[in-house]
Specification:
The complex is a heterodimer of chains A (about 150) and B (about 500). By secondary structure, chain A is an all-alpha fold. Chain A contains 5 helices and no strands. In chain A, helix 4 packs antiparallel against helix 5. Chain B has one domain. In chain B, helix 4 packs parallel to helix 16. The chains are: A mainly alpha (about 150), B mainly alpha (about 500).
């Protein structure tokens, strides 16, 4: 059974582990290694990097042997939409206040779903904004402005 | 009796009006959120954590515990009514519970879950009361080497017992350990993996990782899925199980409680493992195993009891050793640390009101849970009908505002998005998130104890095998690893042999 590498589940997983392990190892090269008795800050991360890359190689080889495929479609659209919604929320919180940020987060993330309707999303945005204000501002007393216009920072 | 006078002290703490109210609020909110489809206890706690920050340590621990078992119970309701459990441990309940619901026996299934959880909760809490202090006293003898080996055992357990491939689970543990390194090194004061960002000096926040890995990644998975889920709510009327039902669930409940209590006390073993083994045990000893999977009431009682028992005994290693058994416990531990309490063997003596107040409140909380669930089950059942397209934006809003509020910083929200993407990719590649999160939690403690042990042993690794307690922990993990690897090697060899025959 031949599986394209881009669809080979364990090949990709192994690659990811190797990348994280090697990356961590490379960054940790600038930290003092120390000795076994006096472990420096570089000891643990470098060892882990090597171990992780080792597991990655094993996983990769097993993937090449088994040819197991990634199950189902990749949900790139919801993934990108949700991440974008969160990033937008974080950025907006620092500039326009809680209410618009929550509204944007609600509508953008709702858009990632299969059954998106503008009217429903708008209602949900209003409800979520009210709830967020009630819980986080009135209930927990968090010091956020409801509306702001602050692009000076 | 020592335990009795301590319990009296605990009830004195738990039964104050204030703590009673927080316990109720915790159980109520936990059930309310936990019952929503696709929301597990971990995400529930991560979302509700900011609410407890303003309370004093005892009240916040009581409320967190309430949220936890409330959410756990809510998850079972969802598992029975909707075949979409919020977390793995309820997935076992869903096997037979959902079938019972399809046969119009949703009421008895829900009641069974409630009764089994309640019984298990009370018994295992008493076990916590008796064994917690013993473990705490024993742990006073632990040095750095013992702690290191114990945590290593927990990590190996979590990887071995996670569903799926062992090598990938071990790799996830190591990934988690590396994630745990981010931040300032305690010994040298050097910032590691912080990439010059001041926000990363304290490490990646726990709720950031938990929400990203479990809420965001899970939502994307659900959105990318195409199959429809059926919901049963019309049948939730005649709640009470018959006498025959009650008789049938007594044995499974007790056996589930025993298994769950035992597994829950071991670090690294999640409630899902306990629930699954309880289910398998019942299936094995049943006169007619074929009923399982088609609505066997024992198949609801045993995993529910195991689930809940493990949920309570998780507090033993968490509070007495300071080692969180699971990701949920890590959240609880993190909340305590933020309150300025360092859990460990000393807590029992320096803060007896904390430990015993919690134990007493768990007894109270289980009663509240039963009172809340039996009459209100219709309301909870209706909640499972909330369409997912309303739910997931709401989850995201609460998770994001919560993460933002941790440090009043957008960076935590950005990080959460990054962890979410990573979590989704891992999930698609069949890499389990549970070992990662345990590695991330234990990482800093593991490194510190490794360092300290080697420093005191003058760089000799033999310290881990010459100290008997440490050796036992290491042997236990090695044994489990071998037990897992040998059969799969054999299977592999058999497969190779089979293939060559086929040629």
């Amino acid at each position: 059974m031949k599986t394209a590498l881009a669809a080979n589940r364990d090949f990709l997983a192994g690659l990811l582990f190797i990348a994280i392990g090697a990356g961590g190892f490379a960054v940790a090269l600038s930290y003092p290694f120390g000795s076994v008795q006096q472990m420096g800050p570089g000891f643990f991360p470098r060892s882990l990097g090597v171990i992780l890359a080792g597991f990655g190689v094993v996983t990769m080889i097993r993937g090449l042997r088994s040819g197991e495929r990634v199950q189902g479609e990749w949900g790139w659209f919801p993934l990108v939409a949700l991440s974008a919604a969160m990033v937008a929320f974080g950025w907006l919180m620092e500039h326009v206040g809680l209410v618009p940020s929550v509204a944007v987060l609600t509508v953008t993330s709702a858009y990632a779903g299969r059954e998106f309707r503008w009217g429903e999303a708008a209602l949900l945005a209003v409800a979520m904004s009210l709830l967020a204000v009630a819980i986080f501002i009135w209930g927990l007393g968090l010091p956020y402005e409801l509306f702001a216009f602050d692009f000076g920072r | 009796m020592d335990v009795l006078s301590n319990l009296a002290l605990g009830f004195g703490v738990a039964l104050t009006l204030k703590n009673l109210a927080y316990c109720f609020l915790g159980v109520f909110l936990g059930t309310l959120i936990g019952v929503l489809p696709g929301v597990g206890p971990l995400v529930t706690i991560a979302m509700l954590l900011p609410i407890t920050f303003g309370l004093d340590p005892v009240s916040s621990l009581i409320m967190l515990a309430g949220i936890f078992y409330g959410a756990q119970y809510g998850g079972s309701t969802t598992a029975i009514l909707v075949n979409m459990p919020g977390e793995v441990s309820s997935a076992v309940t869903a096997i037979d519970g959902y079938q019972m619901a399809r046969q119009g026996r949703a009421g008895p299934a829900l009641a069974t879950a409630a009764i089994a959880s309640f019984t298990a909760g009370i018994i295992s809490t008493l076990l916590v009361a008796f064994f917690g202090p013993l473990v705490g006293k024993w742990a006073l003898e632990f040095g750095a080497a013992e702690y290191f080996s114990l945590m290593l055992m927990g990590l190996v357990f979590s990887a071995v017992l996670a569903h799926g491939d062992l090598v990938k689970s071990l790799a996830m543990v190591v990934t988690g350990l590396m994630l745990g390194i981010v931040g300032t090194d305690v010994t040298s004061g050097l910032p590691r993996f912080s990439f010059g960002m001041a926000e990363l000096l304290d490490g990646v926040g726990f709720t950031v990782v938990a929400v990203g890995l479990f809420a965001v990644a899970e939502i994307v998975q659900n959105l990318a899925r195409t199959d429809k889920v059926e919901v049963f709510t019309k049948d939730v009327k005649n709640l009470m199980p018959t006498w025959a039902d009650l008789k049938a669930i007594t044995g499974p409940t007790m056996r589930g409680t025993a298994l769950g209590s035992f597994f829950g006390a071991l670090p690294g073993i999640t409630a899902s493992v306990a629930a699954f083994s309880a289910y398998m045990l019942e299936k094995k000893i049943a006169k007619d195993p074929s009923r399982f999977g088609h609505g066997a009431i024992e198949g609801v009682a045993a995993p529910e009891a195991a689930n809940n028992a493990a949920a309570q005994t998780h507090f033993i290693p968490t509070l007495t050793l300071g080692i969180p058994a699971t990701a949920v416990m890590a959240l609880v531990l993190g909340a305590l640390t933020m309150q300025g309490i360092q859990p460990g063997p000393a807590v029992m003596t320096t803060k007896p009101e904390l430990f015993w107040g919690l134990v007493a409140s768990m007894l109270v909380g289980n009663v509240l849970l039963l009172l809340l669930n039996l009459p209100l089950v219709g309301v909870w059942a209706r909640l499972t009908q909330v369409p997912y397209r309303f739910l997931f934006p709401a989850i995201l809003v609460f998770a994001s505002v919560g993460n933002y509020s941790l440090n009043n910083s957008a960076v935590d929200v950005y990080l959460c998005a990054v962890v979410g993407v990573l979590g989704y990719v891992f999930a698609k590649l069949d890499c389990q998130p549970a070992p990662l999160i345990l590695g991330y939690v234990l990482g800093p403690m593991l490194e510190e104890n490794l360092r300290r042990a080697l420093l005191m042993a003058e760089g000799s690794f033999t310290v881990f095998v010459t100290r008997p307690i440490s050796l036992v922990f290491l042997l236990a993990s090695a044994l489990l690893l071998v037990a897992m690897v040998v059969p799969s090697l054999r299977k592999g060899r058999a497969r190779v042999a089979g293939e060559s025959e086929g040629d």
